[in-house]
Structures are given as C-alpha cells and as structure tokens.
Design brief:
This protein has about 280 residues and is α/β, with parallel strands linked by helices. It folds into two domains: about 140 residues, 3-Layer(aba) Sandwich (Rossmann fold); about 120 residues, Rossmann fold, CATH 3.40.50.620. It contains ten helices and ten strands. A ten-stranded mixed β-sheet has the order 3-2-1-4-5-10-9-6-7-8, sandwiched between helices. The longest helix has 20 residues. The radius of gyration is 19 Å and the shape is globular.
Length: about 280
Amino acid sequence: MAGNRNMATRSNKVILIPTDFSTVAENAIVHGLELARLFQYRVCLLHVYGIKPGTIYNKEDAAYEVARLDLLKCKELYEQQYPVSIDTVIREGNLFKVFNNTVREIKPRMMVLGTHGKQGLQHLFGSHALRVVLDTPCPVMVVQERSFDTGYRRIVLPVNGDTDSQHLAEWVLQLSRLFKSEIRLLQPVETSPGGNSNVKAIIAQMTGIFRENNIPFSLNAAASASDFSGQVIAFANAGSADLIMTMTMPASGATGYGFSDWNERLMFNPGQVPVMFIDRADLAG
C-alpha cells in the first residue's frame, strides 16, 4: 500500500517506552519488546527526570544517578531476555513536553505507555495518560496490568464518522500479519442519514481492504445510539478481546489537548484490554 510506504519514510524503526520503574511500566516494556522482536525494531526506554515544570536538570544529583543506574539495569536485563537492541534516554523537564519533544526527535513508529489508571485528583482534571495520548504525534498503545500473553489475536475496531479507514487499516494489516488476528468491527447506530451513509462508506472501504488481504473479520452493530464507548468496552470484554484499536478523537474544539470521554473511557476500561490510539499527525512536519 502506498500509504504504508509513506508512513515508513517519516518514522524510524523504534518503539518508545516511557518508564517510571513501576510494575505497570514493566508490563508496558514487555509489550513493547514483544512488538519490537516481531517487527525487528529497536526499543528506546525513556525516563523523565524532574517532571515538575521548572525543575533543574542536574547530572550530579544523587536522584539522577539512581535513575540512570536503574535504566541501565533495565536495559541489561531485557537485552538478555529479548533479541532487541535497547537504547536508554533520560530527559529533564515537564512530562508532557518531554514526551512530545522526544517523539518528534527520534520519530518512533509507536509509543507503548503503561498507566496506573485514574487516581486522586486526576478524576477531576483528567489523567496523565490521556494528555500523552492526545498530545503525542505518533500511535500510542496504552496498557494497564494485562500481560502480553500470546499477543493481539482478537482486535476490536470501533468505526464512526471520524475513522480514517486507510490509516487505521495500515496498522491493522501489520498487526494481523504478526498475530493472525481476527478483526471485529463494531458499527455505531447513527441517527442522521448523512452520518449513517458516511459510516457505511468507511466500513465498505475497510472491509474491502481486509478481503483483499485475506484478513478474517466480522461486522457487528451497536445496540443503541447512546454510550458507544461503553458498548465498545462491553463488546471487547464479552469477546475476550486482546486489543482495541481506534483513532484518537480529542474533545470538540480542543487544540492539541482536550478531555475526551471517548479516549479516557477506552484507555481505563475495567477489563484492562490494551488500547492502541492512532493519530493523524504527520511526523514529517
């Protein structure tokens, strides 16, 4: 596919994995390493030092040295377990700016992000994971505590009028070839004739691509026009999905960052199904 070649030219064969050395970050590292092994990519482990705005970066600080050594231990441990080349990066500054700048600098094919879920005041002000997903100009896979296991054999693909069929299909094809995945499309109930026609056209494009590439799929309909995100989550859990894949859809009117019920509910789904968010951002820009 021509689009796939364009995607490859604007990104490097690297998977970026931020880590704070927590258990959930370790799980994200495993997901990322398994993908890197299968894709034959490199991995870059990123630790952000001094996440508060205005924090001074000091390489002589004891905390910095502890973080540096912990990162090197991670590299040595996982390079013994996986045939993957691992780079390590420690950066200073605001968490979100560092993520965004690092992505633009190294141009990874994707980021794998571990999240602890919504905690404390994040229930009111959104979450770190949500903002990273909305601000980061590359695909982001969000994982909680669910293990990689056998990979992503059952992929739920919700479709709506905002879906970029070709862009999303490129990633579906790549993952399905690795895991022999079955794609489970979920179609919303559209109340307007125009919206319904648009969704049907997108589904026709995607199913045509799947048939052309011999990708097994099923087409399923939502039960009602309300709470599509909730229906996606219920559908994924009922079908023992290994991955939900969707376009990143910020809140209406947001400029680079917004609180989106769609993204947030999916990434913190109670079944802890990993979610891959595909963004339209052009890394060549």
